[in-house]
Amino acid sequence: MAEPRTVVVTGASRGLGLVSAAHLYRRGWRVIAAMRSVDAGLSRLRELTGASPGDNRLVGVALDLTEAASVERAAKEILEVAGAPDALVHNAGISAAGMVEETPIALWERMFATNLFGPVALTKALLPAMRAAGRGRVVLVSSEAGVRGMPATAPYSAVKGAVERWGESMAGEVAPFGIGVTVLVAGTYETDIITDAGTTDSRDLDGPYARLHRTIDRRGRLLVGRAARPPERFVGGLAAALDDTGAYIRRPVGPDARMLLLLNRIAPTRLMHQMIRLLLGIPRRGSLWPAPEGSQPNI
Ligand SMILES: NC(=O)c1ccc[n+]([C@@H]2O[C@H](COP(=O)([O-])OP(=O)(O)OC[C@H]3O[C@@H](n4cnc5c(N)ncnc54)[C@H](OP(=O)(O)O)[C@@H]3O)[C@@H](O)[C@H]2O)c1
């Protein structure tokens, strides 16, 4: 019997990573579930899949993307357990709410450490083995916020945009060695990251941006509520990405992501800006000037 293909999924403890890891296991993949809380994550995965504790098609690896030593240890363990993975899915991520003025630099740093620097370090550590094997696919989970810079979540938009450019650059480098890159632009799914509890909130609801927060919050919740689909609807898009053969593929997952990519391609930048402004109920340029007195940035 042929050896199962191996996929590493980061952030497999919950949300999209959890259901994706379970789905890929059911489809016959050998899944290396990389996560911060291995025991809790593995028990959820075993519950979802029926895999037994001795099943070597489901392996947990400890990974905290914000810690260089943890990334290094995880890469070593992955290589020891499975050799060069056939696929590496960078799914783990965090989000943020708040205006640029309100968001502490420490949160920008954590955002980039989690969503970009950690994934880059893990990829660097695994690429030599993947190159030597002459095959493999790196999948980067992006977001609609990475396609357009969305107000009130600049660190998240910035890091997802950076993730996309990283993937695009790397694709040109690794394709000659047989390795492909897919960027998945995920639509909206019902996971913790779209809830208040699952997001780091730096908003100052009484500060100079209070008026914007009120409308963005109201409209945003309405839009997210309408668009959000069960996380199980995401897994087909990821499974398809693992079968991609092109050197660089960027694909939407979900109708809202598909629509945004289309609009972003055909509509001029100014029009896209106005559309997002109207959608989120943001007042016209200059209408909140002069700024209320005593408004201080939150550093
Ligand atoms: N849900 C959506 O609507 C949506 C839309 C667009 C893009 N996405 C993207 O999809 C991916 C998965 O998000 P989700 O919706 O599943 O969110 P989620 O339910 O909040 O899950 C986030 C995952 O990332 C892990 N994680 C966070 N910080 C980490 C760190 N320092 N080291 C290792 N793992 C860490 C979490 O692990 P712990 O359990 O240890 O915290 C968790 O497994 C993210 O990249 C997100 O940006 C989601």
TrEMBL record:
Signal peptide: none annotated. One of its GO terms (molecular function) is oxidoreductase activity. CDD domains: 17beta-HSD-like_SDR_c. One of its GO terms (cellular component) is membrane. Keywords: Oxidoreductase. Coiled coil: none annotated. The keyword Cytoplasm does not apply. Belongs to the short-chain dehydrogenases/reductases (SDR) family. This is Short-chain dehydrogenase/reductase. The lineage of its organism: Bacteria, Bacillati, Actinomycetota, Actinomycetes, Mycobacteriales.
